[in-house]
Amino acid sequence: MEKILCGVDLGGTKLSAGLVYPDGRILGKSVVYDHVALDEEGIVNYITLIIKQLISSNGLNETDLEGIGVGFPGHVRYRDGYTITTSNLKGFKSYPLRDTLAGNFRIPVRLDNDANAQAFCELKFGAGKGYDDLIFLTVSSGIGAGIVLNRKIYRGMTGTAGEFGHTIVDPDSDFICTCGNRGCLMGCACGLTLPARFRKKIEDGMQTSLPLPGDFDYSRVDGQLILQGLEAGDPVSMEIVRDCADYIGIGIYNIFQVFNPPLIILGGGLMNLGDLYFNRILEKFHELARDMIYDPIAIVRSEAGADAGLIGAAALLLE
Ligand SMILES: [Zn+2]
User: Fold this and answer.
1) Ligand 1 centroid to 274 CA: how many Å?
2) CA of 142 to the centre of ligand 1 (A)
3) How far is the CA of 271 from the centre of ligand 1 (A)?
4) 49, 59, 82, 280: which could join 77 in a potential S-S bond, CB 3.0 to 4.6 Å?
5) Same-domain check for residues 172 and 235
6) Can you give the chain as a three-state secondary structure string?
7) What is the distance in A from the centroid of ligand 1 to the CA of 177?
8) How far is the CA of 168 from the centre of ligand 1 (A)?
9) Are residues 97 and 208 in the same domain?
């Protein structure tokens, strides 16, 4: 019998761990939200407890598992198994996450950036099946990417390759990224920019048709509200979606020029903004790429659902 994979998606709000068959189906999973208050050691112990419970509640032994893959929402020093930094969780500055977790088990542990894990998941089980090369771009509260070349994750020197969110697409932008630079793709087009974009449109004199109270707190603007706005034909929401989509279009145009990949997969929460958003991204891309596309390139949306992070982390064991 092929061994079962274990995946851990360590997020800034949600921690999910699960047992996954080698074909990507989930055998069992646990999802918790109360890890956020814990420090690094506390989180490692919590993950250990959850995995041991999953193993026993599914009638398995630790040795039935191939290993444990962990997707981390930040920079990872891949070879050493250290986390470098994350803006989504307390601590984890230069922390030996891989070996600390491995100390609680007798099976191997792999640690990688969560976007890398999801890119590899797309290759094994998703839209990337049958491809050798692909780029996965995730657009949610942040923007990350994973590069798969020759069916392997390309990690660069340290392990931080694929940080397309911090490539600069507009040096004159009004928006500052979490990294401190002006005009990063992430600073221009991720979910975290929606409040500032909304406020700026209103300050510039645009009228929203959304029924917002007079003392509305713009920090509450998120993808969900913008989606409501789109559905209601709100001009502010529609313009924000177009602006953000244009930046993503520029981003994938840059990716196209660097890698000439046959496939770019877009994932993440903002893809829920639907066809208007996605089609505008494609339009912008083709407007820039014009007659420089010599072979067909597929730009598609990820079909992986809410468990993509977890399955991706497990898929790390198949690399
Ligand atoms: Zn940045």
Assistant:
1) 25
2) 10
3) 20
4) 82
5) yes
6) CCCEEEEEEECCCCEEEEEECCCCCEEEEEEECCCCCCCHHHHHHHHHHHHHHHHHHCCCCHHHEEEEEEEECCEEECCCCEEEECCCCCCCCCECHHHHHHCCCCCCEEEEEHHHHHHHHHHHHCCCCCCCCEEEEEECCCEEEEEEECCEECCCCCCCCCCHHHCECCCCCCCECCCCCECEHHHHHCHHHHHHHHHHHHHCCCCCCCCCCCCCCHHHCCHHHHHHHHHCCCHHHHHHHHHHHHHHHHHHHHHHHHHCCCEEEEECHHHHHCHHHHHHHHHHHHHHHCCCCCCCCEEEECCCCCCHHHHHHHHHHHC
7) 5
8) 8
9) no
Ligand 1 centroid to Cα of residue 209, in Å, is 32
Per residue in 199-243, pLDDT tens? 999 999 999 999 999 889 999 999 999 999 999 999 999 999 999
- Do 280 and 252 belong to one domain? yes
Domain that holds residue 259: 134-301
Please state the domain count of the chain: 2
147 and 286: one domain? yes
pLDDT tens-place string over residues 67-104: 999 999 999 999 999 999 998 888 999 999 999 999 99
Same domain, 43 and 83: yes
Q: Which residues keep their CB under 5 angstroms from ion ligand 1? A: 166, 177, 179, 181, 184
